[in-house]
Amino acid sequence: MSDSTDIRADLIAALDDAAYALRRLDRRGAETTASDEALTAMREGIRDVVPEPVAEPPVATPSTPMPEESPQVADPSPTTIPIMTLDEIRADLGDCTRCKLHTGRKQIVFGVGNPNADLMFIGEGPGADEDEQGEPFVGRAGQLLTKMILAMGVRREDVYIANVVKCRPPGNRNPESDEVEACEPFLRKQIASVQPKVICTLGNYATQTLLRTQAGVSKLRGTFRVYQNTPVMPTFHPAYLLRSPNKKREAWEDLQAIMAKLGWDVPSKKD
Ligand code: SF4
Question: I want to staple 107 with a disulfide (CB 3.0 to 4.6 A). Which of 4, 134, 140, 263 is the partner?
């Protein structure tokens, strides 16, 4: 790596650290003299004057397993993923044709919710209703997710919801590896932008993709895992809960664990 690349990486990392700290302070209601926008502008300035690195750091593939028993979570730390606003990420995605899923979609389903949410839900990919409306989790499963969120004492718009892939796989099949490889970087940028305090992965696919594990959600749920120093609670996909309502109790226990982790009031039982 060249000296200029080292300098560029160091400067951007330092500004990412500062942006991260500012957002944490802002969430705590502290007054600051610099804005996140100003830091973003400085980062863009660095891009203009210091050459782009020749090679990006390698990103692990979904086939790379992660230890199943992750350590308990320490304070979140800055990631190596560039921090962009959600608008910037969406603009970068554009009218995407990076994978073959673009051929069958009606529209890209990017994500929805609070850009500074403490809690982020991640699903697999859009279904027919989502493809139609351009918003994740709006069909029957989405309505159940909305009820689950309300049961946690917050509104749907208080959290952030996104999927691993942004275009509907035909016939609601699982996304294929090349499709995930093309689309997943945008999910990771969304996570880096929102900086949630807790991530909840919904179902096998999102859990296995984010955590780089082959283990199923039945085995992983109930215990916090870690992604980029952020605690991750895997739980059942709402579509699965519609088919297997006897699993709702375990899902509710997972949501209660999330509420406790976030310092939210935890009701003694689900309404
Ligand atoms: S799934 Fe993602 S990578 Fe593939 S076309 Fe849609 S937006 Fe692009």
Answer: 134
pLDDT value for 248: 97
167 CB near ligand 1 (under 6 Å): yes
The CA-based angle 172-173-176, given to 5 degrees, is 130
**Hey, where are the domains in the chain?**
1-55, 66-262
Ligand 1 atom closest to the Cα of residue 165 is: 1
pLDDT at 57: 36
Q: What is the residue with the minimal CA distance to atom 2 of ligand 1?
A: 183
What's residue 79's pLDDT? 53
CATH of domain 66-262: 3.40.470.10
What pLDDT does residue 268 have?
63
- Lookup: tokens for 105: 């979609």
Q: Kindly give the parts of the chain with pLDDT less than 70.
A: 1-79, 268-271
pTM, rounded to two decimals: 0.73
The dihedral over CA atoms of 213, 195, 199, 64, expressed in degrees to the nearest 10, equals 0
Contacts for 138 with CB less than 8 Å, ≥ 6 apart: 129, 130
Q: Cα(258)–Cα(246) distance, rounded to whole angstroms?
A: 20
Instruction: Report yes or no: 221 and 255 within 8 Å, Cβ to Cβ.
Output: no
Q: Does 102 sit in the ligand 1 pocket, CB within 6 Å?
A: yes
Residue 163 alpha carbon to ligand 1 centre in Å: 11
99, 100, 178, 209, best to mutate for ligand 1 pocket (most atoms within 8 Å of CB) = 99
Ligand 1 mean position, distance from CA 105 (Å): 9
> Does residue 18's CB lie within 6 angstroms of at least one atom of ligand 1?
no
State which ligand 1 atom lies nearest to the alpha carbon of 93.
7
Rounded Cα distance between 105 and 81, Å, is 28
